[in-house]
Design brief:
The complex is a heterodimer of chains A (about 240) and B (about 280). Chain A is an alpha/beta fold and about 240 residues long. Chain A contains 7 helices and 11 strands. Chain A starts with a strand and ends with a strand. Chain B contains 10 helices and 4 strands. The chains are: A alpha/beta (about 240), B alpha+beta (about 280). Chains A and B meet through helix 2 and helix 3 of A and helix 8 of B.
Chain lengths: ~240, ~280
C-alpha cells in the first residue's frame, strides 16, 4: 500500500469540519480521480497527503511516513516522494522553465551535472525542450502546467498529486494534460487528480472517489460514463 | 555556492534596503567602536600610570646616617620591590632646579635647603597595582626615620574608576547598539523574505529543508554584517589616525577587542536574520 487514510478527520479553527472519518488507500501505480463539489474537501485531502496540514484525528501513511509520528525534516523528505501540481501552476515568474524545474533537485542536494541531465530529460518528456529558457509569463496555460508537472516529476516521486490541474485550461489543452498524466502513470507513478471534470474521469475509466461535505460517498471505477451523459452513472465499488 | 548566489541576488534585489541596513548597522557599530577605542586608550593610560608608579619615602630631617642605612636595608628586604634609590637633599635641590629651568634663580633666594632626603622605590611590574602600592606604603610609613610616604594615590584611583565606568558604558552601549542592529537586520531580511515568499513556498513544497530555505537569508545577514563591520572599522581607523598625529601614544583596538567587535557584529547580523526567519517560517507552518 502506497497511501492510506485511517479514520482521518480534519477540523479547522472555528469548528469547520473539512473531512470526516476518511478511510481509503491507494496502491502503487494506481490512477485515481477525486471529485466532489466545491468545499467537499478535495484540496484538504491532498494537503493531508503532502502534510501541508496534519489530521485532527486518525492518521495518513505515505510510504514509510506516518502523519502521527513525523518531524519537520521528514516532512521535507516526504515531499521529495510526493509531486504536487496546482490549478494556478505556482511557477516562479522570474525563473525560466528550466530554472523552475531545477528547484526540487537543488533542494534535494543533487549535483549540477545530474540536475542538468534530469531537467533536460523531464522537460523533454513533457514536450517543452524547445521552450526551456522561456519565462512562465511567456508560456501558454497548458505549457505552464507542463512545466509544473515537470517540476513535480523531477525527483521521480512515488505519487503525483494534481489539484484541479485543468481548471484554468481549455478542453483541448485539458485533454492533453490528462494524456500526459496517464503517460506518467504508465511509467509506474501513482497519480491522484482532484477535479470537477467528471466527464474526463468517466471517459478514462479510472477509479473515482467522490467526496461530499467531507465524507467519501462513492469509491470505485466509473463504468459507462460518456461525454454526452456527463458521466452520471454510479460507481461500481 | 548556490546559497551564496541566492544571498547576493537577494541583496541586489533589496537594493536600497540593503544599503540602508548597512549604513544603519555601520553607524551603530561606529558608536560602539568609539566607546571601545576610548576604553582601550584609557586602559593604556592606566597601564602607563601603573608603570610609572613610584613610592617616595621622605626621611626625617635629623635622621642619622646609621638609621638611614638600616632603613634602606629594611626597605630592600620587602618583597615586590625592584629597586631603591637614595636621594640626598642636595641632589633633590639640583633636580628641582633642573625642573624650574630658566626660573631656577627663584630657588637661589632660599637661605637653606628645605628639601628632605628621600628614598625612591620602584615596585616589580606585576605589583604596581593600587592596592599593592597602598599596602607597601602603609608598611613603609611605620618604619623608624620615615617622615611621610607619597605615591600619587588620588589620580590613579580616579583613573581606575573612570576605566571601570567606561567598561560599564561599553556594555550598555553594546546592548543598545546590538538591539538596534539586530532590529535593522531583522527588518531588512524580513522584507527580502516577503519579496521571496513565493520562492520559499515552492521550495518547501518540493522538499527543501528549513536549513536549505534559511541558508541564503542567513548568508545575506552575514554579508550585511561583514560589510558594516568593515566600513565601521575603516572609519574608526581613519579617526584614530587623525588623533594619532596629535597624540602619538593613542592606541587602536587591541587584538582581543578587535575580535570581540567583529564577532559581535557578525553575531548580531546572523541573529537578526534568524529572528525574522523563525517568525516567517513559523507563520508559514
Amino acid at each position: 500500500m502506497l497511501l492510506e487514510f485511517r479514520n482521518v478527520s480534519k477540523k479547522f479553527k472555528g469548528g469547520t469540519v473539512a473531512l470526516e472519518k476518511i478511510n481509503l488507500s491507494i496502491d502503487k501505480g494506481e490512477f485515481v480521480f477525486l471529485t466532489g463539489s466545491s468545499g467537499a474537501g478535495k484540496t484538504t485531502l491532498l494537503k493531508l497527503i503532502y502534510l501541508d496540514q496534519i489530521p485532527s484525528e486518525g492518521e495518513v501513511s505515505i510510504g514509510d511516513y506516518v502523519s502521527s509520528d513525523i518531524n519537520k525534516k521528514d516532512i521535507a523528505m516526504l515531499r521529495r516522494k510526493v509531486g504536487v501540481v496546482f490549478q494556478e501552476f505556482k511557477l516562479l515568474a522570474d525563473l525560466t522553465a528550466f530554472e523552475n524545474v531545477v528547484l526540487p533537485l537543488r533542494a534535494a542536494g543533487k549535483k549540477d551535472s545530474e540536475i542538468r541531465k534530469r531537467v533536460n530529460s523531464v522537460l523533454y518528456s513533457v514536450g517543452l525542450s524547445s521552450k526551456r529558457h522561456q519565462f512562465p509569463p511567456k508560456l501558454s496555460g497548458g505549457e505552464q502546467q507542463r512545466v509544473a508537472i515537470a517540476r513535480a516529476m523531477a525527483l521521480r516521486p512515488s505519487i503525483l498529486l494534481a489539484d484541479e490541474p485543468t481548471g484554468n485550461l481549455d478542453p483541448d489543452t485539458a485533454a492533453q494534460i490528462f494524456e500526459l498524466l496517464l503517460d506518467i502513470n504508465r511509467g509506474g507513478t501513482s497519480v491522484l487528480v482532484a477535479t470537477h471534470d467528471v466527464q474526463n474521469a468517466a471517459r478514462l475509466k479510472k477509479r473515482l472517489i467522490v467526496l461530499d461535505k467531507g465524507r467519501v460517498i462513492e469509491d470505485g471505477i466509473k463504468e459507462g460514463g460518456t461525454e454526452e451523459d456527463g458521466g452520471a452513472e454510479p460507481c461500481i465499488t | 555556492m548556490y546559497h551564496l548566489n541566492q544571498a547576493l541576488s537577494g541583496i541586489k534585489r533589496a537594493g536600497f534596503m540593503s544599503a540602508a541596513c548597512v549604513i544603519i548597522m555601520t553607524c551603530s557599530l561606529l558608536i560602539l567602536g568609539i566607546f571601545l577605542l576610548a576604553t582601550a586608550n584609557l586602559r593604556e593610560v592606566l597601564r602607563f600610570a601603573h608603570e610609572k608608579v613610584e613610592i617616595v619615602v621622605f626621611l626625617e630631617d635629623d635622621i642619622s646616617r646609621a638609621t638611614a642605612d638600616s632603613l634602606m636595608t629594611e626597605v630592600e628586604s620587602i618583597p615586590f620591590i625592584e629597586s631603591t634609590r637614595h636621594v640626598d637633599p642636595a641632589s633633590a635641590m639640583e633636580r628641582l632646579k633642573q625642573e624650574f629651568g630658566n626660573r631656577s634663580h627663584i630657588l637661589e633666594s632660599l637661605e637653606s635647603n628645605p628639601l628632605p632626603a628621600s628614598l625612591e622605590i620602584t615596585l616589580k611590574p606585576q605589583y604596581r597595582l593600587r592596592q599593592r602600592v597602598e599596602g607597601v606604603a602603609e608598611r613603609l610609613v611605620q618604619l623608624r626615620g620615615v617622615e611621610d610616604v607619597s605615591y600619587g594615590r588620588g589620580w590613579i584611583a580616579v583613573l581606575e574608576k573612570v576605566v571601570r565606568v567606561f567598561a560599564v558604558v561599553d556594555i550598555v552601549i553594546g546592548l543598545v547598539v546590538g538591539i538596534a542592529a539586530l532590529v535593522t537586520v531583522s527588518y531588512t531580511v524580513r522584507l527580502t523574505l516577503y519579496a521571496r515568499r513565493e520562492m520559499i513556498k515552492v521550495l518547501k513544497l518540493v522538499g527543501a529543508t528549513d536549513f536549505f530555505v534559511m541558508a541564503p537569508f542567513l548568508l545575506e545577514g552575514l554579508l550585511h554584517g561583514a560589510a558594516s563591520i568593515a566600513l565601521s572599522l575603516v572609519l574608526l581607523y581613519l579617526g584614530y589616525s587623525a588623533i594619532d598625529t596629535r597624540i602619538p601614544q593613542a592606541v587602536f583596538m587591541p587584538l582581543g577587542m578587535l575580535i570581540f567587535f567583529i564577532v559581535f557584529g557578525l553575531a548580531v547580523a546572523v541573529l537578526g536574520s534568524l529572528v525574522s526567519l523563525r517568525v516567517f517560517l513559523g507563520e508559514k507552518e
